[in-house]
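It is worth pausing here to work through a concrete case rather than discussing structure prediction in the abstract. The textbook approach is simple: state the sequence, then state the predicted structure, then interpret. We follow exactly that order.
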Amino acid sequence: MSVASHPPTPVVVAGARPALWSLVLTAVVAGLGLAVIAVNTLVGYLTVGLSQAVPICLGLVGCFAFTVALRLLHRAWWLAVLSVVPALFVLVGSVQLAPEAVLQERGVAQQVTITDVQTSGKRHEFALRSDSGPLDEPLVYQGSAPDYRVGQQLTVLTDPRRQVELADAEDVDAAGKRAMLVFGAVGWTLFALLAGWRGHVRRARGRQASAPLPLPY
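Step two, the predicted structure:
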């Protein structure tokens, strides 16, 4: 008499579903960071010639959103707070890249001499004069201790379309701003991976602590 065989019982890998869910959440947070960088950089290019308040405000909102998402993923604040460091590189790079790239691509270099300065609070406007006459656009410096002085000679870059303010040629570094964006993107991605791993471990420990005790047989 033959005994009917039963179908094999499927083997369920413990923790496979939570691990997959943590991986998905980590990818979403990392993708959010890259999206913030891409969108804010694009907005910076689209608003060239307008106020930089738009990419600055949008960048601040994006950085805050990434910080909150990182905290939810990690289930702790300390890693989210540390992510502010690459966030500064993201904000500065995405806001400053467009105007500096424009000046490097189509800017006209001119040798000028500072002839006068007007100060209003921390805003300093330096009047400039080239060999062909005075420039109708000042060199603006925001800060309490400018490195410029009357009589100083320097090279500035001016935009023929007048969409971007003239700037000291030594301060224009589009490649440096791209490097800042890369550093910010790498930093945010590493933080997302670390937060995803630690958050998964913390959630797993919470599930183990709340799991019911097995019944004795």
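Step three, interpretation. The chain has two domains: 17-104+173-207, 108-158. The beta strands are 108-120, 123-130, 133-134, 139-142, 153-158, 167-168.
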